[in-house]
Each structure stands twice: as structure tokens, then as C-alpha cells.
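User: Show me sequence and structure for the first protein, then do the same for the second.

Assistant: Starting with the first protein.
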Amino acid sequence: MNAIPTVSRRRLLKTLFCSSVAMKLNLASSAAAAETHTAASLDLLVLGDFGSGDEIQASVARAISRYAETLGKPTQGMLLLGDNFYGSMPGGVKSPRWQSGFSEPYPAKIFPAPCWAILGNHDYHDTRGNEQAQLDYAASLDRPTRWTMPGKYYRVDLPANKPLITFLMIDTNWKSINSKLHNDVPCWMSDEEKTAQQIWLDKQLASPRAPFTVVVGHHPIYSDSKHGDTSDLVKELAPMLEKASVHLYLCGHDHDLQHLELEGLKTSFVISGGGGARVYPHEKTRPNSVIFDSYGFSHLAISNKRLWVRHIDPNGKMVHAFSKGVDHDWKVEA
């Protein structure tokens, strides 16, 4: 197993000519990209913390659109990791922000497939009731929409016939977590909802699944950025992932791009929170982690034997990539 260097963008630039990993980044990026594009059966784009509604969101949206067009084949969908709308959302399901913040920046002609979304803390907090509006949006229309959120937690198997990957989309907006972030008004799922989700997740993790399993939540279990580790998720969720041999935990909340491997754990931890909200700086990283204080998004590619995760900056540059096998072996690709 290859260890990930402890690295930031600044250190990466400083050590470009003396770090073997940095050299690998420079020499192998094209090969890794070609391998991903040719070998992958499924391609999904990943975007978190994107709903700022400003020019930064627009610039990252343009970047992900350009990137999607370079793949040379349609993607199977997008994963939206929460904090889909910051600030006021007047009108709920009829808000003009559905057009300005979703349909227009991520147009159907480029992203025709489903956009599977989960809720972030700002989706609960910034406009009271907006979490329900996001759940109701698709059902309120008289035409199909790509916005896909059938519940606060749900399962997606891709492809539908002989799936290669199972996504378990969950709501991590627990009272014990969000009350520390927003102590002014309640902005979390109820205790009854949390208990029901726990029972559901236990059942899903014990059930037959595709060769790869990815659990998707908003808050990080482990993070080397502003918010750090989420103690409640470390205590309650991490052991469930380990017991079930989950391959990847994918989240946002910290506004950067991260990849963490923890000693003794099978699950890889990936943060993709660079979709548009202000980037968080970091001061230090733990061993076997990589972090980029950068806007951007991620590309998840899956074959029948391996999955690849690639972090892409707003210029379309791949800043980090790794792959993982069904048996949990992993290696840095770039």
C-alpha cells in the first residue's frame, strides 16, 4: 500500500522537483486520465458546498461543464453533497434560485443524468423549511427534473442491471452536530428521523450490495481542515463503515479537496467541498492525508475491478488522484 504524502498546494509547489510523489503527479496525470476514461464503465461528477449563488459558484460550474465535455462520453450522474443553497431561498419550491442556482449553472444538455442530492447544514439553517422544499421540488413540477432527492436518506445502485456500485446517501444533520454549528435556531433532523435512518443504514449495510459501496454524507467523519473530525460520526458512523467494509466515505462541509487514509481502516475518506463557498485554509495534516485549499470538484469513475477518485481544480487540472480495488487495496495515481 502506498502512503499519501502530507501535502498542501503550497508545499507541493515547493517540493515539485524533489518529491517523488510530486514527480508522479507531473508524469502520470495524463496516463491516469487515459486509464480512467478508457477503463471506467461508470463516470459520476461530485460537487459539494456549491450553493453560494455568486461568481465563484458560476466559475466552478463552468469548469465542471468544460471537464464533463472532455470526457468524450456521457456521465451517469452527479452527486451533490449538501449546502446546495446558502442564504435566503424565498418561494421554496417556486424559488427562482432553482433556475439560477441549479438548472442554469449545470445545464441539462451537459448534465442530462440524475443529480442525486443530500442535505447540508445550511440547507436546514439558512431558510426555515428549505430542507423540505428541496425534498418537495421534483414532486411539485409537472415535468421531470434532474434534481433527485427521494428522501433524506436513500439508496442508489448503478447500473440498475448488475450494479457495480452501491451509494448509500444519508443525512448527517444531527442535533448533536448542528447545534454546535448553529446554536440560534433548530436546524437538524428529528431524533425519530435519526433513529429511523440508523435502522435503515444497518439494514442496507447488512444486505447484498454491489462490489463497491460508497456512503455519502455532508459532514466529514475525519478532516484536516477547519471543522476537523466530527466526533459523533467518529463514534457512531465510522465503526459501521468498518464492520461493513465500506470502500469510500464521501462528503463536503469543509471547503476544500481532501483524501485521507487512516491506519488500520478499510474505508477511504474523501472531501469534495470546493463547489463555490469560501475556501478554508488549513494549518497541518496528519500522516497519509492530502489536502488542497482550493475550489473544485471531483470525478468518480468505476470499473468492475477498481474505482478512481480524481480531484479537479477550477482550471481543469487534476491535482490528486487515487484508485481503490474491490479488496480495499489503494494507490496514489497522480
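Switching to the second protein now.
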Amino acid sequence: MKFSFIRLGAVLHKELREYRRSPFIVLTMAVLPLVFLIEPLITIFRIGPSVAASTADRAVSGTFLVLLIAPALLPAVIAAYSVVGEREQGTLEPLLTTPLRREELLLGKAIGVVVPAVGLAYVVFAVVQVCARLFASNTYVVSALGQGSHILAEILFAPLLAGWSIWVGIGISARASDVRVAQQLGTLSSIPPLAVVALVSFDVFTPSVTLAVVFALILLVADVILFRVVSALFDRERLITGASAQRAPSAGGQVPPAGTVRRIPRIGGSDDG
């Protein structure tokens, strides 16, 4: 069966439609961007016109680090819900029995997370830039925020950090049996790439356009590798039997382990043979 963008679009449409039905996802998308917007604005507004340039540089570096946490953390929380959440709702087994390639299913779910997450990250970044130009009292901070290397890093790193968090989150979600555990592990998975961003933000590596492009390429390769790994580990049969076991307790009230096959007597005849 060939890869179909029509089936991919159907999965994407389903994922975006699910956001309207899930108060948790809507609340997460509303609250987290506000949290990551307030702190940078407070930091920028507190810098007076007489503050030294070195102090302003540290504040700007911290601001960009906070702005890049949002596209890493928000997708991790949502992606960790993608598989185990459907299992809890009882919609996983019907989805897995549809004629979908696993790549179509995984990419549809990933795009459904990355579009709103990265879109919100860009909106927050734009709001910080506009507010700094309108209300910041330190002109050095305004010029530092508008440097080309910082803007390029935000444009490149936001989707790539989101991609890392999404693939690790989906992989965890496919293996986890509890939504809260999946989300906690997914959140922790966003730390490694952010450590690299922190090194750049605090001038351990000198920020430049070349450095931003190199790190972006490294993250892109890592995202592709993670997609291949998650695709290879995505086991439909295990997920289907696990979902069936959770919804179909045995006669004694015990839930059979994943992979257990129960014999069903034939109607109108004996069960022998």
C-alpha cells in the first residue's frame, strides 16, 4: 500500500478536531504560552535605561531560552497523550484497524501537534518583540532582541525542538499505560535539546547565523532518526490487543494480559474440533 497524503490529511483533520473535544489539551495550549509570555516581559520591562550592557545581554539570553522552552515543552505534553489517551477513550482500536500505513498515522498525529505548538511559539515570540519595542526603556535590549541570529534561531529551533519532543512523546505514549506517566516522561524528554540551546543562550558558544544553522541541521537529523525509530517500534498488534484487554475484562472480573486470546464458542454447535 502506497503512502497517501489523503489518508494523512484525514488523520490530521481528526487530530485537530479532537482538540475541541478535549478540555485538557485546550487548557494546556491556553495556559502554557501565557506562562512563557509573562516571564520574558517582566524581565525586559525591569531593565532600566542605565543598566550595563553585560546585564542586559544576560537578560536577553535568558529571555530567548524561556521562549524556546515553550515549543519544546508544549508538544511533549500533547504528544504524550496521543496514543495512551486514545486507548483510555476507547478510540485506539478502531483507529488502528483502519487501512492506514503507520507512517501516515504517525505523521498525521505529529503534524497535528506541531502546527498549533509552533504557531503559538511564534505568536509569543512576536508579542515579546512588539512589546519590547513599544514599552522597553533600555534601547540596548530592544536592539539585542532584534538581532538576526536570535530571530533565525527562534525560527529554526522552534519546529525542530517541537519535532524532538513529539517523536519521543509519541514513542512513550505508545508504550505507556497511564496518561500522567506518559506526560511526565515526555516532559523530561525535552530537556536534552534544551541543554544545547541553553549553551548558546548563555554564550558558552558564541551566537551566530552559522552556529544556528549547524545546530538546526543536527536537530533535523535527530528528528529524522527518531521518526524512523518510533515507526519501527510502533506495533499495531500489541496496541490493539492491549486496548482490547483493557476494555474486555474476563468473567471473573480480571483483565487478561495484553496478547491473551480468548476462545469464543460457535453459535449452534459444539466447541470441539
